Amino acid sequence: MDASQQAAVQAARHSYGRLLATLAYQWRDIAAAEDALAEAFAAALAHWPHTGVPRSPDAWLTTAAKRNLLRAARHQRVVLDPAVTVLLEQCETSDGTESSTIPDERLRLMLVCAHPEIDADVRTPLMLQVVLGLEARQIASALLLKPATLAQRLVRAKTRIRESGLRFELPQAEDLAARSHAVLDAVYGAYTLGWHHTALDSPSTQTELASEALYLAELCASLLPAKSPASAEALGLLALLWFCEARRDASLGPGGEFVPLHQQDTARWNIAQVGLAETTLRQAFAVGSPGPYQLEAAIQSAHCERLRGEAVPWEGIVLLYEQLLAMAPTTGAQLGHAVAVAESLGATAGLNLLQHLSVDTLVSCQPYWVTRAHLLAQTGALVEAESAYARAIGLTENPAIRRHLMEVMGRLCAIA
């Protein structure tokens, strides 16, 4: 790969989401912005080897994409708004009020994707694909949907934005709070998808996505009205991400092998980041409006008792999961609750909770099969556990996690 190709790859990796957000927000057409930016990257690969890498690759790509948008609009005989035609000559800038309110184009577009006229079940995946650049296949896997089904929903949502004349106006303060939940879900989704679906063998991409999620979580926490339920949840999410970041290095062994949370060496946890997470969580709870992200962060905080040489307080974690399930009975919360109950009352009690879940809807849910396999092995049902591990391995995309599961299953086979 020559220098020009490397520059294009770097621009795609580091700037795609920001460039797309800027174009889509200015042009009011997400699908058209995606096409125009794709053409701009193709043009860069064709021209840069001959003309050299421009001083500002991002500016070159933005200009090329804007020209593509105008060319397509003229070809389709679209009547352009004067505020849009100016894109060819200069970047459309926000006025001082807008800039100081929402200083990031990606967050602006995420808030547009959370517009109440867009179906609720597509808001978060739309943000994940358009703003954060994740593949529909990855998003569909996390949402337990078929990729084709999700792709159809995303296309319909983008078409609705374009054809309904949905305005990309800057949301007011009350809109920020109303739309914040979907935005927080997308930020957390980006972080977790990057962690579980990006190969740990390529940590740079994972780190970039984690950094992006952290930045947006911090931005949400700073922009939402202070001491409001929405701000408390934003702080809860930020605390949750810091707890996860604090254990990032410990999640890999010396040879790059995956290390589960309960086996991690706490000496490798980042104490400063744990402290930051704890402080942020206290700020969230001080608002007095508990929410799902605050409870998830509190669960992670409970695991940090190991730093003080104490045992993990599983009974307390069970209570936290019960509160979480009352607010947000997600599959992840149900599985976490089952594990906590198993640690507190025994594996059989945890397995009994899994029996109440619909296997039909979990047939492609990797965490379900990992949890089931783990609890079955603890009860001595080794043959069933091996079968569940085999199913989990087949659903695992992360190479390091796949190797870990294969090693665990191999040890079970040796015992059986």
List the helices and strands and how they pair.
Blueprint: H1 3-27, H2 30-51, H3 57-75, H4 82-85, H5 96-101, H6 105-113, H7 120-130, H8 136-142, H9 147-163, H10 173-197, H11 203-223, H12 229-246, H13 271-286, H14 292-303, H15 314-327, H16 331-345, H17 347-354, H18 366-379, H19 382-394, H20 399-415
Helix pairs in contact: 1-2, 1-3, 1-6, 2-3, 7-9, 7-10, 8-9, 10-11, 10-12, 11-12, 12-13, 12-14, 13-14, 14-15, 15-16, 16-17, 16-18, 17-18, 18-19, 19-20
Protein architecture, described:
The protein is mostly helical and 416 residues long. The chain folds into 4 domains: 3-93; 105-224, no CATH class; 226-312, no CATH class; 340-416, Serine Threonine Protein Phosphatase 5, Tetratricopeptide repeat, CATH 1.25.40. The chain is built from 20 helices and no strands. Helix 7 packs across helix 10 (173-197), helix 11 packs antiparallel against helix 12 and helix 12 (229-246) runs antiparallel to helix 13 (271-286).
